Give the backbone structure.
Amino acid sequence: MMQGGTALNRFLRYASMDTQSDPSSNTCPSTEKQKRLGHLLVEELLELGCQDAEMDEHGYVYATLPGVSGEPSICFCSHMDTSPETSGKDVSPIVHENWQGGVIRLPHGGVEINPRDHPDLLTKVGEDIVTADGRTLLGADNKAGIAAIMDCLTWFQKHPETPHATLKILFTPDEEIGRGADLVDLDRLGADFGYTVDGESLGSMEDETFSADGAVVVFEGTNAHPGFAQGTMVNALKVACDFIDALPKDTWSPETTSGRVGFVHPYEMSGTVEKTTITFIVRSFVTEELAVFGQRLESIQNEVLSRWPGATGHIQIREQYRNMKEVLDQHPHVANRAAQAIKAAGLTLKRGSIRGGTDGSRLSFMGLPCPNVFAGEHAFHSKQEWVSVQDMEKATEVLIRIAQP
């Protein structure tokens, strides 16, 4: 089997480091603790022969493994941060060796990982499954990808006789809060095309993502002393709740859609009687549909405001990322190279779409065509997160094959 053999040990080391990003922060990186992992990776990259490895002031790690002349420069990219949705502090990974198919019961919080609820887990009998201990997420999203990339470099260090393309390594902060590509210096990176290593199922490769906007819906009311508020107070909190209640119940949401159907998702609300703000993500595989979704939100807001005299409101919509297929279709050799590597590794290719986005979405539109390949991470952002060691090793093999002429 073609692998470096270091993926598990590296992953356990990376997963134990708290690297959660923070959407409320205006800095880059959003949390300084992400740089702790960045510093460690720079040290390891230098040991693996990437003499130019460094981390910039924004927490981006760049490195080059020189290859044969005449070959393209290929970027392998993963993100260092973990989701702010579940605690990433004091992660304590557990390796369930030679798992035999039963329910995995974690030692804390009554957390269980039932194969019935995780279909891909049913295919992993006899493999080594890594989980957290029930108190935190695991961080396989995306430290499994980092481990696979580093394991790939280890393999080439051990096999200097094997020709390979020049490899450009990029580890980003803040992907989980939608800012992973914000301050990437593509000139500094110097790659012709790339691959994010941030996918799920064994053998999967995605060359299509949602197109995405963010929406902020604001309602403003009038505050007054509650003892003397009759006829004066207009409660923005109640107006906002009316707005949420007016959203469709059986369509147009993550919990009611699948496949290629887009959605509008309120995920945060805060406010007072005077002003309340609701934050949405807006998603569709068809970019033009985002404007239609925005207009529908505005229509629902106007309908709600008509029921609340004295209340006002507005909507702000900003672009987040776009469907990378619009770019990758112009560079078919990039996705085809990954597809061929997956098949050469003896895997069944699962070519599909992501109901989400990766750094590759932004990077593709910035000029670096960048589909997504699997890292083996599952149930991400949750305490049930898991990864197969053998999947990480296969991801390593695929990267090695992508890199070879």
Remarks:
- The longest helix spans residues 140-158.
- The CA atoms of residues 130 and 233 lie 54 Å apart.
- The longest strand covers residues 211-220.
